[in-house]
Amino acid sequence: MKRISAKxxxxxxxxxKLIKSSKYRAEQGEFIAEGTRLCEDALYSNCDIISxxxxxxxxxxxxxxxxxxxxxxxxxxxxxDSIFSRISDTRNPQGVLCVIKALDNPxxxxxxxxxxxxxxxxxxxxxxxxxxxxxxxxxVGIDGVILSADCCDIYSPKVxxxxxxxxxxxxxxxxxxxxxxxxxxxxxxxxxxxxxxxAKKITEADFKNGPICVVIGNEANGLxxxxxxxxxxSVTIPMKGRAESLNASVAASIIMWEMIK
Length: 261
Description:
Largest sheet: 7 strands, parallel
Number of strands: 12
CATH class of the largest domain: Alpha Beta
Helix content: 25-40%
Number of helices: 12
Strand order of the largest sheet: 8-7-6-11-9-12-10
């Protein structure tokens, strides 16, 4: 492993930009995974790891994980704890970080099973919500995820961390708008998830007939009317008590469970 001693080293600056800027991540085609478990997960998921950076603390305390990564990653570096704290996106960093090449052709639909169960996300803005949704989607067996271009960045450090590695493995595409995507793929049996007592209850919806796509909307404003109009029908989660709506990730989890039952 090579040692980096200067905080203004080009790689350190590069990592800082990758952490802070979605535009820079898109331009470079790279993103960051931080933490021992997540970096190991990236390795086991056959991600293209460009660089590995570990702190002195991690080198001493996570030797087994570091050794596995060093054996597979060509460019490995060790830095001081103080420098690592400058580039870390977590409050209590473990001291292990990977620079990873973005997935190939994320905007192509050919990696998604067109006869399966799909989830579409329309303008999801909270990285924590998106990470949780991706994690749940992988756990229950959703075949693919469609994200509108105005969703938060799927390679945001918070999304990557919240997904617990699902972002490495889930098939996904990014489209201009969900409404346009559905209009161009009318073979999909699409459902708009809405808060509307007149919509069909999810417990009564037919999620078994043909390729399915359920659409979840923005945390504050729900689905755009154009997206609702593009769907085959609308569904809602029946709620008791005085609750008017659910968190986007909670709603998505409930609906995904109904989809795969």
